[in-house]
């Protein structure tokens, strides 16, 4: 007897309890990397000890942004670029909740780039998951701030003349406390990273290099999803703890992946409460807030 | 005779921009505008258009870059839609204040929320008061023609104001239509190279965008208002010139069977063509129905409009956006205030229809006319209805 015959006639998907199944089928193309990341996100949520009612998922607009519409948790599908500020409001109003931002490279770092750097600077306690497919998938494959130099998009048909951001280095430079990058084929690593990021207090950033065969691959001689998946995976080199500036994406040679940053810094709410709950003295003759916080912790 | 080609309307818009030989295009993609800017980036990349295409990181940056390039004396184009247009809002006011003749194609789409990518006029109605000249196209040929006309008007030294050409998202942007493509020589004869009246020039420095203290702010706004008002005869003049050059005549207010009409449908944008068929069918059935299509929305051609509806007893206005809290949609509100000044005028029924791409059929237009005529006959208070709301 095959295993199949023992199954429920209408087998549930293992993630069904976290899915708004009435919204399925989803809009994602076959072979798209977003589904993999979405699966990893749901696994990480289930594995975490955080009660589901305490988790909210916020996304902006884009193919990746649709995650917020499919997940059966408190979710907020915001406008293009504004996932982080919406999430900031949510987090500040409900600090006990765990707020995950899941969105695309364009959404988070082009039109929303300003919010990204300031949320990292303030160390707002958010988990930001970025599906980096190197272009604006939803609108048909235009240049993004991640598009590799020389890669073709619909707005750079001869190849991009722009220098892309290194998202991980940017996040770290702005003050993120957790920064990791994986490819969509590193499914378990992605799941672990999202889980760690969720448990980390402060601004955590997980970047996933993911295939968009439809818009990006098609214009760059990698039409099949597997071509792109393998391309990113095969070139990836794990370098934990490397300085994020050195965690470069050199598509010709190697794509540095791994956990680059895992450090402590007072979150925005920590510093906020400190300033509002005690006399901190007159600037500039005050201690740095991290010193003050550290003292408070030892005293407590 | 210009050649006729089958072309997606978005591409016709880009081809017009190419024929206009723009210098700078700064844009951020948004459905349903994407094909316009993608085609332009191809034209630039393939060397067919000698321009800078700047794929900026948001619409706010796009409009800001356009202001910068226009201030430097470059012929400048951009295009957007809905959320993107809304994100430009702040800078949209700057362009006419600095008298910068930027041309923009707006692929009209509904504003969120709920999130919608489909067509209506809620995006542009939210930008009614920005001080740009605004026209509406009804089909692909008009998109081509109005785009060329926009550069001609905007850059005319009697005007020097930015100009928007509205085209309905999907209904126009994504359909293929037969379009007469003028030759480069013809366009060059119509549209001379851009001669900025003022520009940022290191040899001859000027300052732009300075503070307007209370002592001068009002006067500066008045000057802008006057410029917009004075653009009206120039807009007409360049449509007449266009007719001479290309054989197609455009008018601020287009009329269809209005002369003896008791009831007049008022439309703006591509649904005007559906309404026209409905009017023809009602005419064939012996009903005295006519139509007015508003082509020039800003500055509003008040005199032309009032002339066109002078014989009408009932107006049936189709609005494609809401003006929440007002007693009708933006187009009907405009018309009612105009009619008020005449001290009489027709009964006005306003129907907000076709929100977020919902189809409006000939049958719908006929039912609107029936409903409006019945309400007028019964002496009902002025009608406002959101058409076809499902129970
Ligand atoms: C203000 C505004 N501008 C433009 C758009 C159009 N738009 C929707 S999604 C998108 C880009 C999405 O790219 P990315 O964030 O990388 O997500 P992906 O689709 O690649 O997952 C754009 C430009 C919009 N919705 N709102
Ligand atoms: S367009 Fe690209 S990113 Fe969007 S669903 Fe398809 S493959 Fe995924
Ligand atoms: Mg993307």
Give the overall form of chain B: globular
CATH architectural type of the largest domain in chain B: 3-Layer(aba) Sandwich
The CATH topology of the largest domain in chain A is what? Rossmann fold
Element-by-element helix/strand order of chain A: HEHEHEHHEHEHEHHEEHH
Major beta sheet of chain B, specifics? 7 strands, mixed
Structural class of chain B: alpha/beta
What is the CATH homology-level superfamily of the largest domain in chain A? Thiamin diphosphate (ThDP)-binding fold, Pyr/PP domains
- One letter per element, helices H and strands E, the order of chain B comes to EHEHEHEHHEHEHEEHHEEHEEHEHEHE
CATH topology of the largest domain in chain B: Rossmann fold
Q: Which radius of gyration of chain A do the C-alpha atoms yield?
A: 20 Å
Count of discrete structural domains of chain B:
2
Helix percentage of chain B: 40-55%
Provide the spatial order of strands within the biggest beta sheet of chain A.
2-1-3-4-6-5-8-7
The helix content of chain A, as a percent range, equals 25-40%
**Alpha carbon gyration radius of chain B:** 21 Å
Tally of helical segments of chain B: 13
Number of domains of chain A: 2
Task: Quickly give the structural class of chain A.
Answer: alpha/beta
User: What kind of oligomer do you see?
Assistant: heterodimer
The description of the largest β-sheet of chain A is: 8 strands, mixed
């Amino acid at each position: 007897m095959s295993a199949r015959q023992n199954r429920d006639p209408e087998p549930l998907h293992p993630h069904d309890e976290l899915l708004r199944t009435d919204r399925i089928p989803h809009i994602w193309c076959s072979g798209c990397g977003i589904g993999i990341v979405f699966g990893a996100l749901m696994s990480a949520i289930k594995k975490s000890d955080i009660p589901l009612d305490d988790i909210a998922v916020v996304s902006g607009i884009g193919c990746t942004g649709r995650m917020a519409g499919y997940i059966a948790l408190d979710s907020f599908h915001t406008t293009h670029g504004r996932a982080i500020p919406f999430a900031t409001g949510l987090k500040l109003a409900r600090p006990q909740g765990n707020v995950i931002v899941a969105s695309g490279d364009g959404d988070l770092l082009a039109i929303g780039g300003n919010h990204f750097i300031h949320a990292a600077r303030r160390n707002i306690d958010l988990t930001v998951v970025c599906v980096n497919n190197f272009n604006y998938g939803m609108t048909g494959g235009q240049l993004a701030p991640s598009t590799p130099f020389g890669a073709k998009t619909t707005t750079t048909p001869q190849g991009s003349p722009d220098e892309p951001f290194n998202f991980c280095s940017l996040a770290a430079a702005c003050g993120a406390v957790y920064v990791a990058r994986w490819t969509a084929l590193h499914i378990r690593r992605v799941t672990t990273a999202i889980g760690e990021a969720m448990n980390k207090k402060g601004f955590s950033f997980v970047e996933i290099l993911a295939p968009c065969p439809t818009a990006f691959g098609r214009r760059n001689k990698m039409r099949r999803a597997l071509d792109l998946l393998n391309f990113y995976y095969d070139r990836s080199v794990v370098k934990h703890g490397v300085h994020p500036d050195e965690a470069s994406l050199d598509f010709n040679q190697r794509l540095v992946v791994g956990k680059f940053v895992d450090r402590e810094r007072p979150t925005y709410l920590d510093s906020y409460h400190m300033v509002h709950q005690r006399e901190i003295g007159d600037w500039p003759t005050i201690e740095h807030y991290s010193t003050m916080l550290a003292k408070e912790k030892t005293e407590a | 005779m210009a050649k006729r080609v089958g072309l997606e309307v978005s591409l016709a818009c880009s081809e017009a921009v190419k024929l206009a030989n723009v210098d700078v295009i700064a844009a951020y993609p948004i459905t349903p505008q994407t094909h316009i800017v993608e085609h332009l980036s191809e034209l630039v990349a393939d060397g067919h258009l000698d321009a800078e295409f700047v794929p900026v990181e948001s619409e706010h940056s796009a409009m800001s870059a356009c202001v910068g390039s226009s201030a430097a004396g470059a012929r400048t184009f951009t295009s957007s839609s809905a959320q993107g247009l809304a994100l430009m809002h702040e800078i949209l006011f700057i362009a006419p204040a600095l008298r910068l003749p930027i041309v923009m194609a707006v692929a009209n789409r509904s504003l969120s929320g709920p999130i919608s990518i489909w067509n209506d006029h809620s995006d542009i109605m939210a930008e009614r008061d920005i001080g740009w000249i605004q026209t509406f196209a009804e089909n692909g040929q008009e998109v081509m023609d109005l785009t060329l006309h926009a550069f001609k008007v905007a850059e005319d030294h009697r005007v020097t104001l930015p100009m928007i050409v509205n085209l309905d998202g999907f209904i126009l942007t994504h359909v293929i239509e037969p379009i007469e493509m003028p030759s480069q020589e013809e366009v060059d004869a119509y549209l001379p190279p851009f001669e900025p009246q003022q520009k940022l020039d290191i040899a001859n420095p000027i300052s732009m965008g300075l503070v307007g203290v209370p002592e001068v702010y009002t006067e500066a706004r008045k000057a802008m208002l006057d410029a917009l008002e004075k653009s009206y005869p120039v807009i007409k003049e360049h449509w007449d010139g266009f007719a001479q050059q290309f054989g197609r005549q455009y008018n601020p207010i287009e009329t269809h069977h209005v002369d003896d009409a008791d009831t007049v449908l008022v439309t703006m944008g591509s649904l005007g063509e559906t309404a026209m068929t409905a009017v023809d069918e009602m005419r064939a059935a012996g009903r005295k129905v006519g139509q007015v299509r508003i082509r020039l929305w800003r500055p509003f051609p008040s005199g032309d409009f009032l002339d066109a509806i002078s014989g009408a007893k009932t107006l049936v206005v189709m609005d494609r956006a809401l003006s929440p809290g007002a007693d009708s949609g933006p187009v009907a509100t405009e018309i009612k205030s105009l009619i008020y000044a005449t001290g009489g005028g027709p009964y006005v029924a306003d129907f907000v229809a076709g929100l977020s791409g919902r189809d409006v059929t000939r049958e719908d237009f006929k039912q609107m006319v029936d409903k409006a005529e019945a309400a007028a006959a019964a002496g009902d208070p002025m009608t406002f209805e959101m058409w076809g709301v499902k129970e």
